[in-house]
């Protein structure tokens, strides 16, 4: 499971465009209209890419949700 959050910050204002959980990176790519490789790159990046330096670039955060064991 992965959580995908797409948002834009402009000064003190913030707007969340998407904040959903998905089963796979492929599902995220279909939702965002990106290729699987682009989504994999976003989820694993540690440095800013050149295209992220634009003033109005939406921030995309993809985080893996750890599996938890049920305590029954």
**How much strand content do the residues show?**
25-35%
Major sheet: 3 strands, antiparallel
Write down the secondary-structure element order: EEHHE
The number of helices is: 2
Count of domains: 1
Distance between the termini: 21 Å
Low-confidence stretches: none
Instruction: Tell me, rounded to a whole number, the average pLDDT.
Output: 85
Overall helicity? 10-25%
Q: What's the Cα radius of gyration?
A: 14 Å
* Strands in their spatial order, largest beta sheet: 2-1-3
- Principal-axis shape equals globular
By DSSP, the count of extended strands is 3
From the helix content, strand content and strand pairing, which structural class follows? Answer: alpha+beta
Explain the overall architecture.
With 72 residues, this protein is of the alpha+beta class. It has one domain. 24% of the residues lie in helices and 35% in strands. It has helices spanning 25-32, 36-44, and strands at residues 2-10, 13-22, 59-64. It has a three-stranded antiparallel sheet. A hairpin with a 2-residue loop joins strand 1 (2-10) and strand 2 (13-22). Helix 1 crosses helix 2. The two termini are 21 Å apart. The mean pLDDT is 85.
């Amino acid at each position: 499971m992965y959580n995908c959050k797409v948002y834009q910050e402009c000064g003190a204002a913030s707007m969340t465009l998407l904040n959903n959980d998905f089963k796979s990176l492929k599902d995220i790519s279909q939702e965002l209209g990106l290729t699987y490789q682009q989504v994999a790159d976003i989820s694993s990046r540690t440095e800013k890419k050149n295209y992220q330096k634009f003033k109005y670039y939406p921030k995309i955060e993809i985080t893996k949700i750890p599996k938890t064991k049920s305590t029954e």
